[in-house]
Amino acid sequence: MNKIVLASNNIYKIREFREILSRENIELIPQLKLNIPEVDETGLSFVENAILKARNASLLAKLPSIADDSGIEVDALSGKPGIYSARYAGEDSDDKANNKLLLEELIGIPLDQRTARYHCTIVYLPFYNHPVPRIYSANWEGYIGIEEEGDNGFGYDPLFFLPKFNCTAAKLSEKQKNDISHRGKALKL
């Protein structure tokens, strides 16, 4: 079995990665389990941040690594919050605060103009200073709803409305979400 360190301390992402990669011959070791601190996300793109995370985890764990950087891009807000999705309402913000701020910024904008997408970039490094990281990216299209709906998922899932399913991502089962989400698509590439 191949051991790979997952460069994340986010328990929800760890669970999603494990579920999506469960059929592969991979022992996924979260950096959280190895007490590896998260690196500062100083990049200006999803790719740069994912590479920073993957290099840090691989260097400290002395293992191959996988990392993602993901977020939500709202067209009416010129792509915001983007790479700042997890800290949109401030460095120590949580999902509720981020969702609240996003809804406030979209007041008065009708649903058909609230197009958005989740974006995910995943980086795999066989060793920390590998010169050519493998990079996989995928999007998941939808809209930002008017209010939070649903209890599943995390982040902006209670606001991310999917017309095909007539519900938010937070109302999908874990399996449904993993089959069609940005992260699920990127991990299957």
Radius of gyration: 16 Å
- Stretches where pLDDT is under 50 for at least 5 consecutive residues are none
Beta-strand residue percentage: 15-25%
Largest sheet: 7 strands, mixed
Helix/strand-derived class? alpha/beta
Kindly state the mean pLDDT as a whole number? 96
Q: Strands across the major sheet, in which order?
A: 2-1-3-4-5-6-7
Helix content: 25-40%
Alpha-carbon distance between the two ends: 20 Å
Shape: globular
Order of secondary-structure elements: EHEHEHEEEEHH
Question: How many β-strand stretches?
Answer: 7
Number of helices: 5
Keywords:
alpha/beta; seven-stranded mixed sheet
Overview of this structure, please?
The protein is of the alpha/beta class and 189 residues long. Strands 2-1-3-4-5-6-7 form a seven-stranded mixed beta sheet. The chain is globular and about 50 Å long.
Can you lay out the helices and strands and say which pair or pack?
Blueprint: E1 2-6, H1 11-20, E2 26-30, H2 46-61, E3 65-74, H3 95-105, E4 115-125, E5 134-144, E6 160-162, E7 167-168, H4 174-180, H5 182-187
Parallel strand pairs: 1-2, 1-3
Antiparallel strand pairs: 3-4, 4-5, 5-6, 6-7
Short description:
Helix content is 26%, strand content 25%.
